[in-house]
Design a protein that fits this description.
With 501 residues, the protein is of the alpha/beta class. It folds into 2 domains: 279 residues, Aldehyde Dehydrogenase, Chain A, domain 1; 197 residues, Aldehyde Dehydrogenase, Chain A, domain 2. It is built from 15 helices and 22 strands. It has an 8-stranded mixed beta sheet, sandwiched between helices. A 7-stranded mixed beta sheet has the order 16-17-18-15-14-19-20, with helices on both faces. Strands 7-8-22 form a 3-stranded antiparallel beta sheet, with no helix packed on it. Strand 14, helix 9 and strand 15 form a beta-alpha-beta unit. Helix 2 crosses helix 6. It is globular and about 70 Å long. 50% of the residues are buried.
Length: 501
Amino acid sequence: MSSGVDSSGSFIGPTENPGGSLFIDGSFAAAEGVVIAGNNPADGSEGFSYLAATAEEVGRAVTSSRRALNGIWLETSPGLRKKQLCDFASAIVANASGLAAYDSLDTGKPISMALGEVPIAAGFIRYYAEAIDKINMGEVPATGVGITEIQHLRPRGVVAAVVPWNFPLINACLKLGPALAAGNTCILKPAEISPRSALLLAKIACESGLPDGVLNVVAGDAITGSSLVGDPGVDMVTFTGSTATGKKLLTQLGATSIKPLLLECGGKSPEIIFEDAADIGINTIAAGLVAGAFWNQGQVCVARSRILVQQSLYVQVCEAIVAEAQKMSPGDPQDKSTTFGPMACEAQYKKVLGYIERGLEEGAELLLDGRSPEGFDGGYFIGPTIFGAADQGGCLARDEIFGPVIVLMPFKDEEEALALANSTDYGLAATIWTRDPARSQRMARRIKAGKVRLVSTAAGAEPAGFNHSAEPYGQSGFGVEGGLEGMRSYLRRQSVEHVYG
């Protein structure tokens, strides 16, 4: 697969598509379901199309995964499994250009971002590979003489991993890394609009030495996903996506079977700025707010899209954020200098525009209008859009927009800030800017979010990285991802008693 950069700095994507919309037992195959066709997000032209996997084809993938689980993967020694996954991680990096090109072409993600996401994705595979011989796979509790109990951690079996389109490769590896390292086999179901990096990923896994059937991919629509989740041969489902789809999965599984389900769903994360944070620097704060809200064009589940500012700083912060956001402008996603691309698809483009219109109808003040950015008549481009003085009960403050739209709201004191922060059904993340350590801890304890970031300085520091783990709150889902605890999510506990007295 060839790709590269031309003399003008534009990225040249892969010159060929994957060999089919299925990857089962180590080879590509064409599906026989309905035609799925998308448009190029950058110009609206006809894009990649493929046939969705049918229920029968999903069944083939499940059978393959079960066969690989019982035939080889459960018996693969920890050392060999570690080596094979480390080789897989290295192969991902070696194929960075093709993987990044597919994600950029399918979702409009700037190629510079897509290339930067490849080593992160590979890092998840490598982190969990390295954890294989470092995590204890059982415990021995205290017992009386003549009996020993061992509480083993066993693989759950065949895992169905359903991932979204905003970070196709990273989300896939975030799930595959711990699931495969724990000894499960996996069937990956990529988002409808972004299947190609997942299919290439499976090919890379096979060529790097992963046994056939350990990783299968079925591309398709909601019917494909429903068939996979509901297949009785699937032992666990792990899903990242919208809260609406997460609820459908709960309903489906509750009506048909009992199996573990890990959900990371929507978010409407707050960013809270107290007046004592002014010492950090208003422009510094604004740069952090804009980066957190408009990363990946705001198509991020943890995007801090609700900015709550103490009244004394409200006007200053509004002005600084608008000025900072105006430095960002959409560009051709295939140009390596572009850092802000289009919406991923026409449906998301229309959804975001609809929220902007609703916000105006509800009386919110439009501080920066990103609609119809200059120079982009085609494609699904929306620039940074900023609202102020929004009703806390309105759509801008409560709904997950999943686009480059943020809303600023003032607050009087700590109690009002907390009430505003907790006024949505979601609970993925939150950021609090304050130099008061006591307030930091009070807010972190009371705020409803799986990940809370406390900022009291402009200085940067290295975070936990791959060892970071958290669990969502409320309508944002449940189950731990990341870190060693994330690997334990893909293991079940079995107790074995040995009576020998």
